[in-house]
Amino acid sequence: MTRRDPVWAAIAAILRAEIGSGACPPGAKLPTEAALSARFGVNRHTVRHALAALAAEGLVVSRRGAGVFVALSPRADYALGRRVRFQENVTASGRTPSRRVLRLETRPAEPAEAAALGVDRVHLYEGLSLADGVVLAQFRSAFPAERFPDLPAALARLGSVTAALAEMGVADYTRAATRITAKIARGPRAGLMHLPEGAPLLRTEAVNVDAAGVPVEYGLTWFAGDRVALTVAPEAGGQPGWPS
Length: 244
What we know:
The protein is α+β, with helices and mostly antiparallel strands. It has helices spanning 7-21, 33-40, 44-56, 86-92, 111-117, 151-158, 161-167, 187-192, and strands spanning 60-63, 67-70, 76-80, 97-108, 121-131, 134-144, 174-184, 200-209, 215-224, 228-232. Strand 8 and strand 9 form a beta hairpin. Helix 2 crosses helix 3 (44-56).
């Protein structure tokens, strides 16, 4: 006589297969308990048992007030050192990097940008950084407009800050200072990053300088806390403090 699996185990097996096939991709929200109960013709307790089993396997994550989501791939290690390059970081983790530009414009510098760069006008470069099509971060970088008048065109054409700055005569640049703060995803940012409201973010605020120590970039980046693990490279210990 063949022993039958409990109903909750059968439901878990179906959901597990759907997750494995990609029908429910990483980060996707699962149907509500009520919807799953109706789908499988069982009570909510049975559905909760199935979801708890999937959570124990690390396949789903429950967020209070938001629902149950398919777990994301393991966090990508992102090294914060003197020479931080997005493409190199993501490629080193075995993933394919890409960027989606949201805004590229020239405008008056905001107070924080003016203080960091010592200028009145900046080129603003804003977008999303992705790995294998999954959003890892939202970035916003400001560059001195007067010093680099042709930078927007280079950024639009090359899609790389390093390559664009190289065309402007900056062969190398390094990170002079970094602040890391904890934030939570809200409103438009949560939507842009495909995150539920209240998801953890790690925000970095950084100043990059050229070989002569002159600031060339002031950047803010919001990393998805569930998708990225920030690591501080040993060389970063000798960085100068945050500019006043």
